[in-house]
User: What shape does this take?
Amino acid sequence: MNRIARRKMTLAGLVLSSLFLSGRARADETIQGQVLGGGAPIANSKVTLYAATTGEPKQLAQTKTDNQGRFEVRVTGAPADSSLYLLAFGGEPKVRNGGDNPAIALLAVLGNKPPAHVVLNEMTTVASVWTNAQFLVGATLKGPALGLRIAAGNAPNFVDLSTGGWGEAIQSPLNSGQTPTMANFATLADLLSACVTGVTANACSSLFAAATPPGGGAPTDTVNTPEAIALNPWYRPERLYALLDQFYPVPKGKNMRPVPFMPYLNYAPSAWVLPLKFDGGGYRAGGKCMFDSEGNLWWATTSASAGRAATRCGRAMRPSSRQTAIRCRPSPRDSLAAEWREEHSAPQWIPKIMPGSRPTAARPSPSSIRMASR
Assistant: This one.
């Protein structure tokens, strides 16, 4: 087999690897789900399924929740490479047997391979807004296919869309115990829940006032509220934190606030940011690395052991920070980077940083990728 044929086969394999992230929604697929507020059903909420692309989103289905907050929609006519998302507006939260609350807006961004069951609640809303903030305008989601795919692929790092509970990455020891991300996230969900469930008569107006961005108008629902916060996380974070005392005062004789989501912050953050750390197959202290046209990160590693020649390996990580492929060559002088440049369209280099050296030529990487390492 000649060199060109081998390269074409390798490229085909890597493209298939990337497609695991970007699988398309199947025709006539059914999505069942439930809309919850404060952990209890929201009845008579209007649920709409959209397909996001570079233009205006396409409405695919619409229904209302039953008395238990349950719904079912069918995926029909979704454009290729679109990102599906669900929006729930209004409804009657059962947690306090309240009436219709027009300020309710809950979001779940599903990508183009949605789970069979979806929960829309305060946590899916926070996760979906923070990962898709650069593509959201109010409740409208649109942007380039790759950017939307990367953003949707990162939402499950924060939340399990099928249950509305915590996602895998945020529960890892690197994040749950070593960063304030989980507490920041839960506190934001608690503040949204106060408006959704009406913990006080003026919960929504107080939340909207505290989330008003600099030079902008006050939000009007529980989707554009976290959007305003995500786009201006540095702006007077203490205003939102102060609402915990108003919404969830510590009961007499108790030590904890009666919040629906734990853990909550015990102090005002410097900014409402949600960084995540990744390890165990993640990128750490690498040399030269690059992004391929699917947003996967590639980097080279070199290893050697007694009696064996050095081996140069290439590792790939999806934009959702999962390692997906490893390639190795026995020759220590072969340049994997040279092959990658030929086999992948539009490679994007980021700097090689080593003690005493200067960064090599760098070009912009996809702005929607969020990664951190110890």
Notes: Confidence is low (pLDDT under 50) at residues 3-26, 303-312, 328-374. The chain has two domains: 23-277, 278-350. The chain has nine helices and 18 strands.
